[in-house]
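Incident log entry.

Two folding requests arrived from the same account within the same minute. Monitoring flagged them as a possible duplicate submission, but the sequences differ. Recording both here for audit purposes.

Request one:
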Amino acid sequence: MEQFEIVQRAESRAPDILFKPAQFRISVVGEDQCTLASYNRRDFYKISLILTGRSRLLYANRGIEIVAPALVFTNPLIPYSWEMLHEEPSGYFCILSDSFLHHNGRTENLEESPLFKVGGDPIYHLNSEQTAYLESIFQRIKQEADSEYVFKLDVIRNQVSLIIHEAIKMQPALAYFTHTNASSRIAKLFLTLLEKQFPVDSPENMLKLKKASDYAENLSVHVNHLNAAVQEVTGRSTTAHINDRLLTEAKSLLQYTTWSVADIAFSLGFEYASYFNNFFKKHTGNTPLVFRKSL
């Protein structure tokens, strides 16, 4: 069984269309080569239309069997694994930022959409009529992306909105199964999600997930369940893992950037620089400034 760990990169090998600013891409599953290194994976949502193949989407302690055709929605804060059970799938996918649909005052908010909302059901199985309709939309989007039309992005936004609203009208398929080792999977996904927050690449971007309850919410499990699973599998607490990763990133930023301590504190999710100073000194014995000067 071939397994694809999804961290907001495209699992296909396809040529893709990139607009500047990097807000949208569309690709056909299974074509040639696809590289997505030029965008910030934490900012992107993904919509996939799977036309053929059988697969399994796993996240936290539940999963969904996908028998094509299906429409799949994933958001940038939930890591997951997608296992292909038989042949390579076919279809389309697009990745887009929230700002792509907010262009010129549009009001669509992907984070609040029921399709992408944490704890929602990301899989929509399709009948033949829905499949034909959605496939035609993806084809139109790709044609527009390849065109020279000056206002093609406006056309694409309208087509993406049609996909979103078509899905909202559907009821998600409920074909859950319990993974045989739920604790192991929860712990693995927590560690993946933790690592996904880094590296911090701008002092203006604060970490979105700061404590165990934030990670539990984004993995759709109770915080006590998350803590128990991580402790069972790793022998360490969720908070200990978070603190260690924060400390590693803090040291790296102090050593390799010229950001002020206040900027570093903000980027790592500390409301006040004094909180960061206390955290750093507690775990290293020195203040951030003393650590920086000693390098």
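Request two (distinct sequence, not a duplicate):
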Amino acid sequence: MTNRFERDVATHWPVAYKQPGYPHVQQGWILPPERKDEFDPFILMAEDWFKRGTFSDHPHRGFQTITYVIDGRLEHIDNHGGHSILDAGDVQYMNAGWAARHAEEAVADDLIHTLQLWLNLPKALKTTTTSYQNVYVEDAPIVPIDGGQVRVYSGEVAGATGPMDSLVPITMSEVSLREGAVYEHVIPANHNAFVYILAGAVELGTSASPLEKTHVATLTFDETADGESGLRIKATSRTKLLVYSGKPIREDYIAHGPFVMNTEDEIRQAFRDYHAGVFGPPAVK
């Protein structure tokens, strides 16, 4: 398409890891929270390795999470009676909305390895009803491409629609390529987007920027455009990467602890509500 906006790498960096201490074995910031203004509508993204007891019962308000399981078994428990086990390749979407209270635990003696993305909600949706959706790997459509495949978790990508039911417009795809394969990933031109390399190495965008495992790249975009954009991906080795995109919300907000609201007063009210029992009983089996 002659009018398609061709994306390039805006910034990129390797993830730095730390060891917080058992049972939280290792953590890295894929999207560092102090740079949140660059990532709108995304707030942060963490990569975690953890044992049971790291993310037990805790509250949230005012945003959404997208948790992708890389390895191990992730047990979800919420205080509305929800319970599920997610395996490698599965994703959980949570709309915290007004008052979520849940736990995310490793099963038994597993060492769980996850990616969790925080996705902002516009002010008008911050008091919506809390909900959870499991997107199992077998339910995310796979699109065969020359030299690989695209698994679509959310949005319309490569002629397929992902099952994730996000409250704001996003795409999430897992791209797997053989060495030497070249693929153009098409997403809306007005979406802010980033890429995380799960395995292997690629040359990305119009500049063919070299990236490898544990590297992150934000991408150029045209917020005023209505059409499509293309991201050229060339696999310089057998590779797997995740591509996320979302339409910016462009509202001022504050992220403090487990809450993301538009003002300091709203953050303080969230803490008061939690301690007053508004979020309900603990999330335990």
